[in-house]
Amino acid sequence: MANRTRLPGMSECAGVPILRRLPIFKSSAQKEEVTVDHLVVTLVAPDKPGQVERIAQCIAEHGGNWLESRMSRMAGQFAGILKVGVEPEQYDDLIKALNNLSAHGIRMLLAESAVETNDTTQLISMKLVGNDRPGIVRDITRLLAGQGVNVEHLITDVAPAPMSSEVLFHADAVLGVPVGLSLDDLQAGLEALADDLMVELMLRGEE
């Protein structure tokens, strides 16, 4: 008689293999979901080593999870915005601990995150350069708002022009543009703000 290989979970009754049901273990993806609140934090603090570590330590010690952030040093100050996830039962303690960081010169503004709605917009990248002048950001954003365009991300800078003493204004942005709005018309409107203004608009993913 040929030897039979006995598989895990298999037994025999009168020489007939019988499969027994093995225990079923749930994967981590099948575990009960934990409700998490989200907190948006904006901060300003004197620029010095250890500031980010102090904030991160505070969040971790009070059950928070650092999710997203944008931070930068500017004019001797350290500024940023971050999104933190925290379970409801630890929410109040985390807020209190973050506010107590003011003793270290870290000033914070806390807000609950809002529900993001899906709207009929397309994301485009905008690169803009022109001679710097007072009011240029106001003029650009006024035109964008008038066209129903939402500024998703914006980085601006001023720098000397190559081979010239003139100061140039640079802007890199991500815009939420209504689907029905012509990008050619939007570009023409922006460039009409000043003769020297050069604008490049491109759908995200086509860069």
TrEMBL record:
Entries under Pfam families matching the protein: ACT_6
Protein localization: Cytoplasm
Protein name listed in UniProt: Glycine cleavage system transcriptional repressor
InterPro entries: ACT-like_dom_sf (IPR045865), ACT_dom (IPR002912), GcvR (IPR016867), UPF0237/GcvR_regulator (IPR050990)
A cellular component term, taken from the record's GO annotations: cytoplasm
Domain ACT: 40-114, 125-204
Organism: Pseudomonas syringae pv. philadelphi
A Gene Ontology biological process term: regulation of DNA-templated transcription
Keyword annotations from UniProtKB, A to Z: Cytoplasm, Repressor, Transcription
